[in-house]
C-alpha cells in the first residue's frame, strides 16, 4: 500500500498530536508529514501523511487514531504521488487554455488545486446572486462558508464552499469550489486558487480572448 493521507480532528491542547503519534508508532507507522488545516475553538484538524509497514491496513490505522484520542477520522485514502506544486499548477493552466471548448476543464482544474469535489468559473453577474461571492468580490479576498443551495451554483448541500476573486482590476469571473468533507478550506488552498484564477483572469483580458469557462 502507498502512503495513507488522513484528516483527523483532535482536541486542541498540548500533547494531543504526540499521543496519536505514539499509538501509530506502536504499529510501526511512520508519520511523514503533518499539516494543520483548521483550528476552530477547542479542536484542530490535521492532515497526516502516513507510511504503513507491510501487513498494516487503513482500518487498523483509523482504529489506532481513535484509540490515541482522535475525535473523528474525517477522511482516509491512499495518497497518489504528487509532483512539484508549481509544475502541477502550470500543467493545469495549460489544460484549461489548451481546451477552450471543454466547458468542464476549468472546474476540474479548480477542484484538483483545492482538493475539492467540484469547481466552476462563474460570470460576475451571476456570482453576485450569492452572499459569499459578493463578499469575495467586495473584499477582493477568498470567502468560504458552509455549503448549501443558496451558497453556490454547485450541487453541494453539505460541507464547505469557497469563492475566489482574481487579483485583476476588472474581474469578469469568480471561481467557486465545494467539498463534501466537513473541513474548511485552508489558507494555502485559498492562496493557490487565487493565484490560479488570477492567471486565468489576466489571460481573459488579452485582446481577442473570451473569458474561460
Enumerate how many helices there are, as a single number: 7
Q: Please give the number of β-strands.
A: 8
Largest sheet: 4 strands, antiparallel
The helix-strand sequence is EHEEHEHHEHHEEEH
Low-pLDDT runs: none
Class inferred from helices and paired strands: alpha+beta
Query: In angstroms, what is the radius of gyration?
Result: 19 Å
Query: What oligomerization state is this entry in?
Result: single chain
In CATH terms, the superfamily of the largest domain is GAF domain
CATH architecture of the largest domain: 2-Layer Sandwich
Helical content stands at 25-40%
Strand content: 25-35%
Integer count of domains: 2
Compute the average pLDDT: 86
Strand order across the biggest sheet?
2-3-1-4
Please give the CATH class of the largest domain. Alpha Beta
Distance between the termini: 38 Å
Describe the 3D structure.
The chain has 7 helices and 8 strands, in the order βαββαβααβααβββα. 33% of the residues are buried. By secondary structure, the protein is an alpha+beta fold. It folds into 2 domains: 4-78, ACT domain (Alpha-Beta Plaits, 2-Layer Sandwich), CATH 3.30.70.260; 85-204, Beta-Lactamase, CATH 3.30.450. The strands form 2 sheets. It has a 4-stranded antiparallel β-sheet, with helices on one face. The protein has a 4-stranded antiparallel β-sheet with strand order 5-8-7-6, sandwiched between helices. It is elongated and about 55 Å long. Strand 2 and strand 3 (43-51) form a beta hairpin. The longest helix is centred in the last third of the chain and has 18 residues, at 187-204. The chain starts with a strand and ends in a 9-residue tail after the last helix. Helices cover 35% and strands 27% of the residues.
Amino acid at each position: 500500500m502507498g502512503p495513507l493521507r488522513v484528516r483527523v480532528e483532535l482536541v486542541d491542547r498540548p500533547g494531543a498530536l504526540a499521543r496519536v503519534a505514539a499509538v501509530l508508532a506502536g504499529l510501526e507507522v511512520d508519520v511523514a508529514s503533518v499539516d494543520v488545516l483548521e483550528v476552530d475553538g477547542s479542536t484542530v484538524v490535521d492532515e497526516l501523511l502516513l507510511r504503513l509497514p507491510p501487513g498494516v491496513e487503513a482500518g487498523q490505522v483509523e482504529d489506532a487514531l481513535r484509540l490515541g484520542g482522535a475525535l473523528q477520522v474525517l477522511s482516509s485514502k491512499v495518497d497518489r504521488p504528487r509532483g512539484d506544486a508549481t509544475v502541477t499548477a502550470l500543467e493545469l493552466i495549460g489544460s484549461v487554455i489548451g481546451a477552450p471548448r471543454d466547458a468542464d476543464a476549468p472546474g476540474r482544474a479548480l477542484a484538483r488545486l483545492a482538493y475539492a469535489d467540484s469547481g466552476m468559473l462563474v460570470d460576475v453577474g451571476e456570482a453576485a446572486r450569492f452572499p459569499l461571492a459578493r463578499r469575495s468580490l467586495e473584499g477582493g479576498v477568498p470567502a468560504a462558508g458552509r455549503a448549501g443551495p443558496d451558497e453556490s451554483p454547485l450541487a453541494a448541500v453539505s460541507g464547505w464552499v469557497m469563492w475566489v476573486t482574481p487579483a485583476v482590476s476588472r474581474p469578469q469571473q469568480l471561481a467557486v469550489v465545494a467539498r463534501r468533507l466537513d473541513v474548511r478550506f485552508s489558507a494555502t488552498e485559498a492562496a493557490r486558487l487565487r493565484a490560479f484564477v488570477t492567471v486565468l483572469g489576466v489571460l481573459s483580458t488579452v485582446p481577442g480572448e473570451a473569458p474561460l469557462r
